[in-house]
Amino acid sequence: MNWSPDKTQVKSWNEWDTLRHVIVGKADDCHIPPEEPALDAKVPEDSDMRGQWGRRPQETIDRANELLDTFTDTLRKRGIRVDRPTPTDFSKPVTTPDFHTDSQFGCMPPRDVLLTVGHEILEATMSYRCRWFEYLCYRPLMQQYWEEDPNFRHEAAPKPRLTDADYHDDYLSEAIGIEKRLQWTAEKHFVTTEEEPLFDAADVLRFGKDLIVQHGFTTNLKGIEWLRRHFPDHRVRAVNFPGDPYPIHIDATFTPLRPGLILNNPNRRLPDEQRDYFKKNDWEIVDAAQPAHNTPPPLCYSSTWLSMNVLVLDLKTVCVEASEVYQMEQMEKLGMEVIPVELRDAYAFGGGLHCCTADVYRDGDCEDYFPNQ
Ligand code: DAV
Fold first, then answer.
1. What residue owns the CA closest to ligand 1's atom 4?
2. CATH 3.75.10.10 applies to domain 19-362
3. Catalytic positions
4. Cβ–ligand 1 contact at 341 (below 6 Å)
5. How many Å apart are CA 301 and CA 322, to the nearest integer?
6. Cα 80 to Cα 316: distance, rounded to the nearest angstrom
7. SS3 helix, strand, coil % of the chain, rounded to 5?
8. Cα of 80 to ligand 1 centre, how many Å?
């Protein structure tokens, strides 16, 4: 059945077919969470965020919301349906039988929480304590889709316990140093242990029948195995990127633009032995352009490589952050029409254009883009 704006349908099999319906996050009430093992491992050692926590200043929240609202309008003007989450009170502490944390985070990046695969939206386990309840912000939408689309499968992965056993002690040290971090990530020694399945949805890229999953800080091997058993009709493939000292989420590292073409962060190249799978199926992997900035904006977890955190609208059209001049230029050379979208002042709230969105509907079916096994 074709898509119509009057009828809710959940379906998206990949990152590039024509986008019709999407969720865009909100910056409301966003907090810098208190220290906790997995989060601390990701905050860069020289970051201005170290040692601070609490609600973000209201003027930065307002500015981020202004940008997210404008992005929403841009998408709506192109005929794309956009839904928004319902923020909860992120100042509330979270206490479970296994852990306590004094505040939560926010709901700017739905991509981290919601994994859309075909007619299913799966709530990820998550791996930070401050993000344990983030799925609640999306429950009003999930319920609505469930009522309106009889084919929608709403699923949730088992909530993890997130006791101290989930995190490696040696990552708790204040000053590890980049050299050691790079050695550890090359050895696939990440902050999360194999205590229980853990994954963030933003570690997964959807290539039709193939799901490509980053093994790193936010997704462990048991999380990948869980995805494999949960999606038995898919091929679930683990990848990792040794040049990244803080490997969370695949979407500032590996960016498919259309069938046959992937941008890869030149500082975090896919290792040779993992490239063969793409090569033998005629996928070209090209280095992404350099970011336009030398540093992230203030109080931001993410690296400057949010430059490549783009939202593909269809095979010829891509949203790129408006200050990322080199990334825009490269996209044009690759034959894409670029829609510049201002978002940099919202990066600190959880990421870029891919992070702040989650697919609800794209045209197209589940195809096999890797027939040569
Ligand atoms: O490069 O800091 C950011 C990914 C956000 N979802 C990075 C990864």
1. 249
2. yes
3. 200, 249, 355
4. no
5. 20
6. 16
7. 30, 25, 50
8. 26
